[in-house]
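Side project, low priority. Logging it here so it doesn't get lost.
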Amino acid sequence: MSDIAIQVNPKASLQVLNVGNEKTPVLVIDNFAVDTSEVIEYACSDVDYGPDSTSAYPGIRGSLPRSYVRAVLNRIYRSLFQVYDVPAGLGMKTVNTVYSLIATPEHELSSAQCVPHFDSNGAYYLAVLHYLNPGSFCDTGLFRHRPTGYEKILENRREAFFASSRDFVEANGPPKQAYLKGSDDHFELYEQIEYKPNRLVAYPGCLLHSGLVDPTVDINPDPRTGRLTANIFVNFS
């Protein structure tokens, strides 16, 4: 199978959540596809998985089929422009389009994998996440940086965020070598986006976020039984 067909559900429910103190919009579409079986089967049969050299993702990733990516973006393209006030003159480009599976045990995590992260400082860089496999897998957590109050790390906040984070680690030590499952002294969990099969979520890549990983459930490199998601990263420029 070199490509797949996916039919977007015309009756899918769309809502916009305004999260955190900064009221950042998060787009949530439930029952996004009429049927996810082909995109899941493709993940199990036609994908070569490995580490993602472009990020610190704690697991393995493999390329999404282009027909799936086109179908998703064709459905949400106008909504992304509207919800995120993207200037009309900007064009959308895909940056990375991958299946993702959490696979890194806690004792192998780097310090960067033990704290919330952001994908980009770009004002119009967006992450699109489609939860695929059935199961009680971990939610996606959105975090606030306690020392600065930042929820989004845009370019004009980047230097202050990293300087403050270095000061915190210098004073308090490195983070515990474990997945972050909730608030701690450095970061406050203020929103959870629930994992639901066939739920599609879009949010700015500058938001501090992390999977709230339960190692006993979520660490599984098998695309048939693991926390399989489809991730599409786009930038408007």
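Brief comment: The chain has a mean pLDDT of 96.
Revisit when time allows.
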